[in-house]
Amino acid sequence: MCTPSPPVGSKKDRPGCTCEFRPASGGVGSAQGGPTRSFGLGCGPYHVAVTDETNAAEQIPATDEALAAVTFNGDGLVPAVVQDNTTGEVLMMAWMNAESLRRTFDEGRTVFWSRSRQELWRKGDTSGDIQVVRSAWYDCDGDTLLFKVDQHGGGACHTGARSCFFRSFDGVTGTGPGGGTVAGDSA
Fold it and tell me: Distance between CA atoms of 44 and 57, rounded to whole angstroms?
């Protein structure tokens, strides 16, 4: 069941959607009662329904000590690399500020900071290509983040490709980082 909810960014003409997950077998959150888990999805022509409760987003635990170790640059941003939880494929890189990092942990979905639009954006609110966070990591200096996700929908890249890393410097086509097929492949 989906009900409209406002998106993170300012695109009011593209409302978000909150979906409830109800197991068919009468478990927690079923029609027999009990709580349901919900999270925002993009509605509209690109809506992606995630129907398996195992794909539901959950809060990601983070200690105060770990959060304090994150080093933001002079603009208050930190790079965030997104990797497929199953295949290890590098899907994308985007920027986070303190608010988008907090929302990512609270919602269990990736939320980034758009430098060009100067606003928060939750991955998938307009495209439907959502990322459910499975684990979060930070590097030895605390100045780069890594999120392992379950990617739903067409892909992570705004071009529609599964990964943003589909162009090699040597011009050779084949597989991208982590073994994913890149754009232009005949395979």
Answer: 20
Backbone angles phi, psi at 68, to 5 degrees: -70, -20
Number of neighbours of residue 110 by Cβ within 10 angstroms: 28
Using DSSP's 3-state secondary structure scheme, residue 122 falls into: strand
Residue range 2-169, CATH number: 3.10.20.810
Rg over alpha carbons for the chain, rounded to the nearest Å, is 17
Is 132 exposed, middle or buried, given 0-12, 13-18 or 19+ CB atoms closer than 10 A?
Answer: buried
* Tokens coding 42: 């993009």
Digit-coded pLDDT (tens) for 133-166: 999 999 999 999 999 999 999 899 999 999 999 9
What residues are paired with 144 via a beta bridge?
none
SS3 158: coil
> Which of 16, 20, 14, 13 has its CA nearest to residue 5?
16
pTM (two decimals):
0.68
